[in-house]
Amino acid sequence: MSGSDASAPASTPGRRGRGRPARAAAGAGPGARERILAAARGEFAEHGYDRTSVRGIAAAAGVDPALVHHYFGTKEQLFGAAIAVSFEPATGVPGVLDGDRDAIGERLARYFLGVWEDEDTRVPLLAVMRSALTNETAADVLRSFVLRRLLEPIARALDVPDPRLGAELAASQMVGIAMLRYVVGVQPLAGVDAEEIVRRVAPTLQRHLTEQ
Amino acid sequence: MSGSDASAPASTPGRRGRGRPARAAAGAGPGARERILAAARGEFAEHGYDRTSVRGIAAAAGVDPALVHHYFGTKEQLFGAAIAVSFEPATGVPGVLDGDRDAIGERLARYFLGVWEDEDTRVPLLAVMRSALTNETAADVLRSFVLRRLLEPIARALDVPDPRLGAELAASQMVGIAMLRYVVGVQPLAGVDAEEIVRRVAPTLQRHLTEQ
After folding, report:
1. Do residue A172 and residue B177 have CB atoms under 8 angstroms apart?
2. What is the Cα–Cα distance from B26 to A175, expressed in whole angstroms?
3. pTM higher than 0.80, yes or no?
4. How far apart are CA A188 and CA A193, in angstroms?
5. What pLDDT digit, counting tens, does each position of A166-210 carry?
6. Contacts of residue A177 in chain B, CB cutoff 8 Å?
7. What is the mean pLDDT of residues B47-67?
8. C-alpha A153 chain-centroid distance
9. What is the dihedral of CA B115, B118, B120, B121, to 10 degrees?
10. CA-to-CA distance for B155 and B168, rounded, in angstroms?
11. Which helix (H) or strand (E) holds A204?
């Protein structure tokens, strides 16, 4: 692969873009990076990690595969970048940690449910969960992302001796709700109002985050 | 398919059983049902719902596919039966509900962690989770199984007004721990002693199950 050859993509026609030949010809033009990232997010969400290829992402973005490698490196690194975009709403967590400490659990529960109730953010998050369940590389990427972008900020914000295990147990509660409410669709959990869930899980999150 | 023809399998040689021709020839002989179920569990665990076929299960069990249909009906029904076997340890839950009510959360946490710490029970449970995440039929089967075999017994045992939502929130906490500890392998959750997790989540399960 010519992933390290920065000049190649710009001079390659790359006319495989479906229905947008002008942009495809532009290749490395303005917005190419964002277009590749959006395509990667869509392809990983739809097909999962295993069945997504750099070639397919390049085609969906209307660019040459070499340009994808140039901007993002390997498929694994591109998956990491796509996860980062998908989790962007979730990285608002540090903001949740500001303010009245006694209501951290409630703010976190409401924030998390909001992210999952919105289809635009739910679909890519589900895709990441699916990929992590079926592919070890995807699980690796998710693991280091969760650690660096979610748990470390929480650990910095809380002044308990060992905040990471508590943060992970809080995350477990929310991941399990995501599984049973949005994926498996168990009733009554799948049908109950989001605010009722906030009310019920807020004390759990509060305890995990601030007590040991 | 001759799934409803009970006499066919017994008269079929079915010599595709790998290395056990005597049993394969026996077809509908003693233990065939259990052998098919064990094969189904293994095949679904290894390949997931989508990529598992009745034909492949029959081959692994050393019987004719018609015998599989005779005993278990469709692939979907066979998946349901395989789930029931995989969850058999988890259906010990009603036993957990007997005894001192103030320690229900702790008993449930210890029981659940025990099931997941044991590789023999963990592997098929993971397979069920994977299948439910990627296939709607598998999710349906899991949903009705969880309802009938896990939640209804819990609902009967607890004398709170609406026990099912609480039982599902407790289940969410444990499912999320299974995801992050055993699948994604996030540290420190993946490395900490199981008893430490029991200590931390017991109050959460207790609250979900007995308070509203």
Report:
1. yes
2. 47
3. no
4. 10
5. 888 998 999 899 888 988 888 899 999 999 999 999 999 999 988
6. 169, 172, 176
7. 92
8. 16
9. 10
10. 10
11. helix A194-210
Give the closest-approach CA distance of A172 to chain B in angstroms.
4
- The predicted complex's ipTM stands at 0.72
> A167 to chain B: nearest residue by CA?
B189
> Which pLDDT belongs to residue A4?
38
Residues of B in contact with A162 (CB under 8 A): 188
Residue that the structure tokens 């010809």 belong to: A25
Q: What is the pLDDT of residue A27?
A: 67
- Compute how many other C-beta atoms are within 10 angstroms of the C-beta atom of residue A186: 25
**In this complex, which of B164, B181, B207 lies closest to A188 when CB atoms are compared?**
B164
- Give A-chain residues touching B173 at CB under 8 angstroms: 172-173, 176, 204
Distance CA A178, CA A194 (A): 12
pLDDT at A162 over 90: no
Match 């398919």 to its residue by tokens: B1
Token pair of A10 as six digits: 């710009």
Six-digit token string for A78: 């591109």
Counting Cα atoms < 13 Å in the Cβ hemisphere of A211 gives 13
Report pLDDT digits (tens) over B69-98: 999 999 989 988 887 777 666 566 657 777
Backbone angles phi, psi at B129, to 5 degrees: -60, -45
Size of interface A-B (CB pairs under 8 A): 129
How many CB atoms are closer than 10 A to CB B118? 12
* B-chain residues near A192 (CB < 8 A): 165
Measured distance CA(B164)–CA(A190) in Å, rounded: 12
Using CA atoms, how far residue B69 sits from A33, A34, B11, B36, B58, in Å, is: 52, 51, 15, 10, 10
With an 8 Å Cβ cutoff, are B192 and A165 in contact? yes
- Least confident piece of the model among A16-25, A126-135, B48-57, B106-115: A16-25
Alpha-carbon dihedral angle through residues A138, B186, B105, B91, given to the nearest 10 degrees: 40
Q: Are B70 and B132 in contact (CB under 8 A)?
A: no
Buried b (16+ CB within 10 A) or exposed e, B150-188: bbebbbebbeeeebbbbbbbbbbbbbbbbbbbbbbbbee
Read off the pLDDT of each residue in B40-53 and give the average, rounded to a whole number.
Answer: 85
Closest CB to B171 among A169, A180, A187:
A180
> For A38-86, what is each residue's pLDDT tens digit?
999 888 878 878 889 999 999 999 999 999 999 999 998 998 888 777 7
